[in-house]
Amino acid sequence: MHQYGTMLESRRKARIAVSALFLLNGAAFANIVPRFPDIKTALDLSNGQFGIAVAAYPLGALVAGTLGGALIRRWTSGRIGPVAVLLLSLNLVLIGAAPVWWLLAIGLFIAGALDSVADIANNAHGLRVERLCGSSILNSMHALWSVGAVIGGVMGTIAAGARIPLVWHLSGAAVIFVPLALLVGRWMLRGSDLVPQSPSPGTTRGRMGLAGVLVALGLIAAAANMLEDVTSTWSAVYLRDSIGAGAVIAGFGFIALQAAQTVGRFAGDGLVTRFGDRAVARFGASLALVGMSLALVFPTPLTTIVAFGMVGAGIGTLIPGAIRTAEALPGLSPGTGLTWVTTTIRIGLFLSPPLVGLVADVASLRVALIMMPVLALGILVLSRALGRRSAGAWDARRQGHGPLPHESTTR
User: Fold this and answer.
1) What is the pLDDT of residues 276-319, one digit of tens each?
2) DSSP label at 238?
3) Cα 206 to Cα 411: distance, rounded to the nearest angstrom
4) H runs (alpha helix) in 162-251
């Protein structure tokens, strides 16, 4: 009985720890975004110089993202996750103190690389804890990342409004985040991230083949992230310039997406546990498809804002679902499926902004946004690659009252 109680306590601490790392990861870089205008002014950068410096962030993420799986196989997600978040927090100081643009670019490249590694490690560890819990919890962890991003953005906005010097602001943020990363790192699970090749929650293989499933999962996650990115980048411009909404109303498109996505992720765990990733993804993709189609046919501020909210609610579980299914595929080393999915996501981030901008210049932004229902339709078609809830899969794990044989819950 004492051993069982110790096991439950270790599992509870591990869940708190990895959830905290998701939140810290979201909050760290979000501190910088509201200070971008101050950084550009302080270094007297042209638009071109600033653009090149900022582009170093996704470049670093793309380069390092391919190494994430190898790192967690060598040192385990329980060690890599806290270290990556800790270094990401410390790197804020380098960005704030950069005296010239090329040092700023280096700092942002490092930030992107560390964020990518932290993302892979935290998702891998979240899946370990999820297997111990016997029910879906990864969606709520991603929701906490969104909460962290809001917290970090508020911190940065307050610091900018108070005219706090960059170095002081970002050093202060690091002073908060570094000890927290060290603290929760002590509660992470030890041991290998290896998963035995036992039946998972209904992965589709057969005719699709392993490579086909991996490609489909990467495309699902990339499409979901592109839907979010297109909304974040273009919603205010579309509402203001194409539909004629006021400046305040135009901001509600992004707010609707983020709020609905966060709520959808918190609610998503219960839905995925009951119905499976595939069924929830099909409903979510249908919601986004119908919402954006109606908004483009009837372009008013209200219908468009509601549609962006429907997109947010619909895509909330897609990336966690793709990650969960990819990591459950047989014959892959730990982190391989996860690395593939996150790398495909980051490639999509390079493609969507110029694609939307090019079509908007040639035709109109309204025409360019047709890609949103097209992406949702693509997710609907590819959703058969996602896991489905097989007979009692989650229930059997829950009734097992303990970890799977490969899991270690004690230090």
Assistant:
1) 999 999 999 999 999 999 999 999 999 999 999 999 999 999 99
2) I
3) 40
4) 166-185, 209-237, 247-250
